[in-house]
Amino acid sequence: MNNVRLIVSNLRKAFNRRLVFDGVSFTLEKPASIVITGRNGSGKSTLIKILAGVLSTSGGNFFYEVGESKLDSENIYKIIGLVSPYLILYDEFTAFENLHLFSKIRGIKKSNEEIFDLLDQVGLYERRNDLLRTFSSGMKQRMKYASALIHNPTVLLLDEPTSNLDDEGKKFVNKLIQDFKSNKILVVATNEQSDFQFGDSIINLDAYKINSKR
Amino acid sequence: MKKAYYIFHKDFSSELRMRFALNALIMFVVVSLSTILFAIGSEKATENVYAGMMWVVVFFSAMSGLSRTFVSEEERGTNLILSLIAHPVNIFLGKFLFNLVLIFFINTIIAILYLTLFSGFVIQNWYSFILAFVLGNIGIATSSTIIAAIIAKANVKGTLYPVLAFPILLPVILMLIEITKSAMVGESISEVQSEFFVLLSYDVVMLTASLMVFDIIWKD
Amino acid sequence: MKSILRITVFVLITLVLILSIVPPIVETPKNFFEFPLIPGLEDKAKIIFFHVPTAWLTVIAYLIAMLYGIRFLKTKDIYNDMKSVSSAALGIVFCFLATLTGSVWAKFTWGSFWHWDPRETSIFILLLIYGAYFALRSALDNEEKRARLSAIYSILAFLTTPFFIFIMPRLMIGLHPGALEIDPTTGQVKASSNPVIKFEMAENMRVVFFLSLTAFTLLFFWLWNLSYRVLRLKYKLQTEMQES
Ligand SMILES: Nc1ncnc2c1ncn2[C@@H]1O[C@H](COP(=O)(O)OP(=O)(O)O)[C@@H](O)[C@H]1O
Ligand SMILES: [Mg+2]
Q1: Fewest Cβ atoms nearer than 10 Å: which of A69, A114, B98, C109?
Q2: What pLDDT is attached to residue C50?
Q3: What is the ipTM of this complex?
């Protein structure tokens, strides 16, 4: 298995003229984990989206290294899994159809059984043929985990990982987090004190509000 | 390529489930053709008018239908999951394929209705017309798709679409009108050689450029 | 340094105004300050000193806007976008002026304000592109996204320009120099016989013409620099206000 690293240096993000954070730097080398914390609006979700490669930066840079080579920013999606409140799946399709579609679009071979198995892990096997629009928010959160894990990612980015989940769901997430923490790369954005133990290190975004540009 | 196909497939089955969009588009075509029918009445118009009117209807149908693929992802917030499962090139190709199929479908309906409803609209050189039809549809689908990707990010999507697309689509529309006129009077393809050359180069240039700039547009 | 440009522009524009309007047009010029008569154009020939520079700057402004747009895409520096948009804003003004001077002239020479000749059509399309560019900008409220998408749009629109500049004039009937014409006697399409193309511009007219081109180009760069600086100042002021 290749070595994977996430290198973030001097990352800066501003929306129009409002600075969200500036000068964020850290390096994670597999196996590693980090907790991102900070007040509401401190930029946790923003940072997670940037690391997922779906939001542009305003300065600095970050990249993933697989083995010795830098991963093209357009190919980040191949190695990361994202769970975020902003993630919305296709609600005109059923749970199974969503996952089936994702595996096809990703170009990975997944048998129906493998998808059923994944649905079983997140506790949605019984509801596999229901449209997502009929799902509760907790069930949707479980679906996000299924969609984030379908391609066996090396890097897991979790934004508010346990929101809307019941005890059983939280247990699943805990197990998942332990697995990634000790074998892969894990980034968790959270405000819950109890979640802080998930990271080898903690970064508080409230400390990155100083504009370095002028 | 296969991945792009599955994105197309996703949009296609989603469209089949929420058929209202397609129905509305077909009604749009019927309504605009009826308007022209009332306007022309029983008078005999020139080739210029017939050819022009046809591609005007095509343009506005494209403007009312082809932005959906991107706008609906953006409005429902599903563009995030799409960026997480596919390479931008494949996303563009998938959406392009969807629009290509849609424009072929709609334009075939328009052409058939036009041929049956307007007795003055007679094509004499079918080869010329069909070749232009194919090349033109590819060009319209390409530009409409990339402009749709742009306006999906804007606040006022509907009105902005034709405003941005018109200058870009004008070369295709003008060439299509010229070739349709020539096909109506039965000229051979060689007479409108340069128009065909323009259509072909337009398709190639626009498709290449779109593939190159799409990821800059797509990323938030 | 800045005032040198301003004074040069002022002096040149004044000079051009005098030199283009004052010299009389006579049938056989004897003095250096007399312009030769072009049959069919007479005094109206003088519009060339204003019409061509404005049309030229419409195009230059567009190119500059696009190039700085591309530069923004590369550097992500919002100041490049400001350069881009200030050039485009001037471009749209010059585009109006070119259309205006052109159609006034057309009214008195060709009989009506607008003919849809290929050149007229191209400038009209350019006006539409400028309009679309600003419509797009006003529909995006994230500065970075606005800069990015309008740069992309300017590139896409630019790709269609070879069509309007090189291809359309050859396919359509036109009145500008170099376009196809309809022979009035036979009704056949034939090559251009426009007096302006056949007529070699007289030496002194050419001097005034290039002087005017230079003057207007410098005027453009001066205005461009000015409006860019205004934008930049406004931006800095707003940033400071937000930070305090
Ligand atoms: N699309 C956007 N446009 C403008 N501002 C935004 C946008 N997204 C987030 N922000 C701003 O960025 C800051 C950080 O937001 P976010 O990352 O969601 O915070 P957190 O997740 O830490 O609560 C907030 O001030 C928010 O208002
Ligand atoms: Mg958040």
Answers
A1: A69
A2: 86
A3: 0.93
